[in-house]
Amino acid sequence: MMKNFPVEKFESLDTPFYYYDVNLLKETLSAVASEAAKYDGFHVHYAIKANFNPRLLRVVAESGIGADCVSGGEVLAAIAAGIPASKVVFAGVGKTDKEIAASLDAGIFCFNVESLPEIEAIEALAAERGVVAQIAIRVNPNVAAHTHANITTGLAENKFGVNYEQLNDVIDCVEAKEHLKLVGLHFHIGSQILDINDFVALCDKVNELQRMLKETRGLVLPNINVGGGLGVRYDAPDEYPVPDFAHYFETYAKCLHRYEGQQVHFELGRSIVAQCGSLITRVTYVKKGTRKQFVIVDAGMNDLLRPALYGAHHNIENLSSSAVEETYDVVGPVCESSDVFDKDIQLPETRRGDFLAMRTAGAYGEAMAFGYNCRALPGAVFSDEI
Ligand code: LLP
Known about the structure:
By secondary structure, this protein is α/β, with parallel strands linked by helices. Helix content is 30%, strand content 23%. The strands form two sheets. Strands 1, 10, 11, 12, 13, 14, 15 and 16 form an eight-stranded mixed beta sheet that branches. An eight-stranded parallel beta barrel has the order 2-3-4-5-6-7-8-9, surrounded by four helices. A hairpin with a 4-residue loop joins strand 10 (277-288) and strand 11.
């Protein structure tokens, strides 16, 4: 385990920091690109929200995949990293005029729209510029993904997308606009999905909807975007460093009915970057309570929010000790009771100054860091730079 981390090189670095294994990132990118390339018309867009570190984005860009963005800032970050605007899709329920304008000026591939007022806004800004914006309608498929309630998105009660009852009106609205071109439908059911049947259920919904649109309106659109959501094994990062992209794409190839020439788009975030990243932190103190021992580390919930926000589990490893195991709670220094990374876990006897790695932290780790308690943002170190 420890062989994957150059601990001796960490000695001189300020902690906490995210450590990225560039070889694993490249291996994962090459797997996702080559597995998708087995099927004609499959396109992968990396969901930048998972990690927008500029160096990491450049490696993503080199792989040739596109980008899925949810803000104007992400659109600009994608393009700055070298991802061509022609491979950028832009989703989100609250795109501002400024963000829409910047994306039109950049010439992105497609806006995934989520409401009637948004359609009016894009039309007005495209008209001002004398351009035609490509539009996909984000449809809420009402599919329950078996994942955490905070990261399921495809239910009728979620804020995302257009419900079935409103879909015809929304299509009419886009079709009536001079500066909009309807080019596709967009779906996304949630994140960290490990049950492949959830994606099969999405395919069934998309097939049914496409059949209905063809029968009732004679409408067949050139692009179907099925979103992202493929999960990773937080419990076994070394056994499953690269997700099973082959099975994922094969499922869509088998279950999604495609009309002639139809292109399929995927927006994968977590599955591409989660396993290549670990949060490296140093033990500040080991404190013995009455019934517990606390390992107090110099990383806090502001550096890695997932455990506090979702009760998420990240494997924690002591990189400096191989002594006999003891039971600890691993906590941060932030003034919140929820600043806990894990409870009652076994670690080799841990001392002040030891390095710990919180694994599978490449996705929604650095990207969600913030500065609460006047804490500095965590650093980022790439394996080929030290
Ligand atoms: N497409 C759309 C429309 C999305 O909303 C998302 C994620 C993705 C693609 C990428 O999903 P992925 O392949 O990464 O599962 N912060 C949470 C996850 C939030 C996901 C939000 N949407 C976490 O740390 O678990």
